[in-house]
Amino acid sequence: MITIESDDDVAETARDVSRITRRAGVMQGKACIRGMRVTVGMILGNLSGGATIEELLRLYPYLEREDISQALAYGAWLASERENQLDPVR
Known about the structure:
By secondary structure, this protein is an alpha+beta fold. The chain has one domain (2-80): Orthogonal Bundle (Arc Repressor Mutant, subunit A), CATH 1.10.10.10. It has helices spanning 40-48, 53-59, 65-80, and strands spanning 2-5, 14-17, 20-21, 32-33. It has a two-stranded antiparallel sheet. Strands 3-4 form a two-stranded antiparallel ribbon. Strand 1 and strand 2 form a beta hairpin. Helix 1 (40-48) crosses helix 3. The chain is globular, with a radius of gyration of 15 Å. The N and C termini lie far apart (45 Å).
């Protein structure tokens, strides 16, 4: 189980992502949904490619809406974990 905590005063203090699992023997240690061979990356990739949550639930009947919600939360947390200063464009 993974619990995301935030230092941001505006953000929630914790976001439960207990459905996100990482195990060395499952999908090479990538973040998966409930230990299944469904990665967070697969869900995010499908959504960014235009699939809707309803389509994912229909195509993958073993997924639940909360699985997708937690995949989105986990992806957002990873994207905001670190910010790097970029050099100005010249």
